[in-house]
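Complex 423.
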Amino acid sequence: MRARVAGWSNTVADLLPSVAQQHQADATAGIGPPLWLLAELTYRCALHCAFCYNPTDYTNHNRELDTAQWIDVLREARALGAAQLGFSGGEPLMRDDLEVLVGEARRLGFYTNLITSGVGLTDKRLAALKAAGLDHIQLSFQDSTQELNDFLSSTRTFDLKHRVAAAIREHGFPMVLNCVLHRYNLPHVDKIIEMALAMGADYLELANTQYYGWARTNRAQLLPTREQLEAAEAVVERYRHTHGERCKIFFVVPDYFERRPKRCMNGWGAVFLGIAPDGAALPCHAARNLPGLTLPNVAQTPLREIWYESAAFNRFRGFDWMKEPCRSCDEKTEDLGGCRCQAYLLTGVAANADPVCDKSPTHERIVQLVRAAVAPGETHEQPILFRNDANARKLAAGQHAANAAQTSVQAAHTDRCGGGNTL
Ligand code: FES
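Predicted structure with FE2/S2 (inorganic) cluster bound:
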């Protein structure tokens, strides 16, 4: 299974293979339609997960589209050809208009998926979501133990999640569990699978942490050793063999342990369209990482114009943006150069080859990070920074200072060389 950015469901993609294939085929002829719409309704969340993929400066983007604006987004996206819709966040249940949006999505013909921590998913709301036509719920757990589940989310939600899982089943939704893996819970992967089986899960997504957002901030604490990862993968294989009929288990390998990069989002501006809570349109989950990329906003610009004409969505389409070694690489049509956000986060330049690729001149950086990973049981001197407003403000202030420093370095470089661009 190829890796993907945390937050998007492989299981849902798996449920819609024919639609996906059809649109991917169309996309090769030019710019295809956005197939997957991810509506990040809010950055508000009761949990404080150490690996959250939301921007670390989310407090700088706390405006939210209203109900009418979201309905416009759904209509415009459906008219463009979007078929699969994820409601995400933050915690989408923080929005009390979720049922209204699900109902509208259903009328428009979307296949809908709710990506939730379970906090706020009461019996009453489950019934209302069912009546509104929601197809699918993906419930996250942090671990099979109360201690680690509650530590990693910095909440007491383990028992609540068990109750919610049972209620999801009682209301007739497919049982889809998601657990993000890292060095703390990889040794528990057998127990996590047992927990999913005991709950009657139809699908279990074991998504190894990808290092964006808060996970990037906590990378030194979360990155597993290669031995941990291989041991967990062997356990998963064993369960697939014995229980594969009962529960489909996905194991998403972390990029840092690969030698070829993922075809991130199936290509920039190819099939994925994310809308952030404030209406910013995202070519990928982590696009807010990229300085110098002006994200268009649905409150000002029609979605069709954003998708087909905006500079942000066209920035990394095709192959012309590529530098060497990607430009002349005979594998570029396979991986499309990998992940732009990863290239930026690890090299400072988004158009560089994704350092996951062992043909990249910066691949050694990843090799060294993996080599330095701390074994289970050992501790890292740096404390985990949990996702909360206070930490977000602190990180935003640090980022602001770093951006200012980078701008002055670039200005000096431009003065000297007439160039310089992180994109
Ligand atoms: Fe891969 Fe942004 S997350 S391109």
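Residues 5, 264-265, 268, 284-287, 339-341 surround FE2/S2 (inorganic) cluster (CB under 6 Å).
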